[in-house]
Amino acid sequence: MAGAAVRVFNGRGGEFDAVVDTATKAGVQVRVHGRRDAQPEVHVDVTLAQAVLKGDKMDDVVRDAVMMGVLAIRPIVTTRSEVALASLRRSHRQERWQRISVSSAKQCGRAVVPVVHEACTFEEALGPLGGTGSPRCGLMLVEPSAAASVVSVGEVGSKPSDATILIGPEGGWTPEEITLGSSVCRLVTLGSRTLRADAMGLVAIAALLTHWREL
Amino acid sequence: MAGAAVRVFNGRGGEFDAVVDTATKAGVQVRVHGRRDAQPEVHVDVTLAQAVLKGDKMDDVVRDAVMMGVLAIRPIVTTRSEVALASLRRSHRQERWQRISVSSAKQCGRAVVPVVHEACTFEEALGPLGGTGSPRCGLMLVEPSAAASVVSVGEVGSKPSDATILIGPEGGWTPEEITLGSSVCRLVTLGSRTLRADAMGLVAIAALLTHWREL
């Protein structure tokens, strides 16, 4: 409605007070008149690399991860995933998850809309972690018994500038994936409790942000 | 089916291997032949005192809290709750939540079934926290701006033997409730992020267990 006071955000950290000029079916024109202090963002650039889950559980994972302050979500397809990359692309799931990211950012008052990348394979997701140059922090969530080198969240170390959290599908990682992942990631466990696959992301992010004093 | 190998648990920490003797509509008889090592429980007796949420969101809160290892759930009715104690009793919600506790314990492999208490008022929930004798740890989740004495999870202090986590309804606590609560609880915040009311419990438990090195 023309004249209404609204708050708008650009999805990249800017949040503004504005007044509606015109509102039609084709769109809304607003007049911006002041920058607001947007909600502060987390000081670690977190990417959640989550194996695509069954049904629409991934919708909740995206919604929750955005609420917790991640900067990006990278859906991955692993050996035990029950969905194929081709079918994800055909069904335009990435566009759907990106819309969920926008609406979750709005609901939580975040001025930044996290990007949801196109789905890729587990090996592709590891790519950015292995490079020389700027060392990136990869954290692969596993069962406590997965390997001798598994650490708990409290042993992950001090706050990095960025972190990629890798979480497997309902059926877990294969031993080969754990071996491959351990070459470029730390293997991290959330303890002996059995968590539902669709809750792992939220719990892992909450635990890591607590450890890094970001909660 | 007679002869089938099963695993049974008594809901109080005991887990056993057994074989089915007879299975009829009236019930199943099993022969227990060995005690198993049950999944270890959290070393803090956590009670989640959660203001009842709208619709069936409380079902998810109960399910998630049991998954995270709480020992009890106490539904509470606060000033801004949109449900009344009488209507909760009439609709047998406590029995429903107790059944959800059983099924979540099973799903997560916990040998302990957390008790879901009958709903009570906020003031009644504070009762056990104010007493002399064994000091109990009450933690009331609030917005960062709620009072001068609000601390972050990292400042909550060392691991207590028991803790009651109080979480308000969608509309939050009233200022009077915060004043009353602060007389027997620490006021704790999860930071400046805006969390959905139905996710607060899971995030708070994950954060506190991380802080206490229980994850």
Give a short overview.
By secondary structure, chain A is of the alpha/beta class. In chain A, 31% of the residues lie in helices and 27% in strands.
Q: How would you sum up this structure, described in words?
A:
The structure is a homodimer of 215-residue chains. Chain A is an alpha/beta fold. Chain A has two domains: 5-36, no CATH class; 45-211, Alpha/beta knot (3-Layer(aba) Sandwich), CATH 3.40.1280. Chain A has helices at residues 57-68, 85-90, 93-108, 122-130, 175-182, 197-211, and strands spanning 5-9, 15-24, 27-36, 45-51, 72-77, 115-116, 120-121, 137-141, 151-152, 162-167, 186-189. In chain A, the strands form two sheets. In chain A, strands 4, 5, 6, 7, 8, 9, 10 and 11 form an eight-stranded parallel β-sheet that branches. Chain A has a three-stranded antiparallel β-sheet with strand order 1-2-3, with no helix packed on it. In chain A, helix 1 (57-68) packs parallel to helix 3. The longest helix of chain A is centred in the middle third of the chain and has 16 residues, at 93-108. At the A-B interface, helix 1 and helix 6 of A face helix 1 and helix 6 of B.
| Poorly predicted spans of chain A | none
Stated plainly, the CATH topology of the largest domain in chain A is called Alpha/beta knot
Biggest chain-to-chain interface with counts: A-B, 31 and 31 residues
Shape of chain A: globular
Query: For the report, how would you describe the main beta sheet of chain A?
Result: 8 strands, parallel
Distance between the termini of chain A: 38 Å
Mean pLDDT of chain A: 93
CATH class designation of the largest domain in chain A:
Alpha Beta
What is the domain tally of chain A? 2
Overall number of strands of chain A: 11
Strand content of chain A: 25-35%
Helix content of chain A: 25-40%
